[in-house]
Write a structure and sequence with these properties.
The protein is mostly beta strands. The chain is built from two helices and ten strands. The chain has a four-stranded antiparallel beta sheet, with no helix packed on it. A four-stranded mixed beta sheet has the order 4-10-9-6, with no helix packed on it.
């Protein structure tokens, strides 16, 4: 019962505050041809709210000295490969920025693709490579895999791709060895 009473009092208080903020104010109608002496109008209904100033999105200026990763190629096709072996491609890149480039993470879109990358900083003007290995075993058909590189470059996330077509391995044909028949007569 106390809770209900407390809520009722709170609602009455909020209503009273609301009523005070939308208080009626006298409006001058001297030129509208009517006698409105002492008449009031609800100002909140007749006055449009002031438009909010447009918020401009302020973008942080790019660091002109930042590291910058530039790949010689961002997509590589293995073409047709036989099912079974692993295939590897080297993605070469350069740091064309003015600060050392640090690759903090390189991860593939699935477990069948394994990247390896330099853990030490790549100095400005220097080249390095990311090796990407794809396991074809048990994966016949076409594939496209993405590798995401996270770094301190001016573009902190970069994606490179491998693709190809795994040709299903032919099942090995076994030739039965000739065995002497158990039912054949012995000499």
């Amino acid at each position: 019962m106390k809770k209900i009473l407390t809520i009722a009092i709170a609602l009455l208080y909020v209503s009273a505050i609301s009523a005070q903020t939308t208080k009626s104010a006298p409006v001058d109608h001297t030129n509208d041809g009517h006698n409105h002496e002492g008449h009031t109008h609800d100002v909140s209904a007749s006055v449009a709210p002031a438009p909010k100033p447009e918020e401009k999105k302020v973008e942080a200026p790019a660091n002109p000295n930042a590291a910058k990763i530039i790949f010689k190629e961002e997509n590589y096709s293995f073409g047709e490969v036989a099912e079974g072996p692993q295939v590897t491609h080297e993605f070469r890149f350069s740091n064309t920025g003015k600060e050392p480039l640090i690759l903090s993470n390189v991860h593939a879109s699935c477990g069948c693709t394994t990247p390896s990358w330099p853990k030490e900083p790549i100095l400005p003007g220097k080249d390095a490579a990311i090796l990407v290995t794809y396991n074809t075993q048990g994966r016949p058909g076409s594939f496209t895999k993405s590798i995401t590189i996270t770094s301190n470059s001016d573009t902190p996330n970069k994606i490179i791709y491998i693709k190809g077509e795994v040709v299903k391995a032919e099942p090995e044909k076994s030739v039965p060895l000739e065995q002497p028949s158990l039912l054949a007569p012995k000499n």
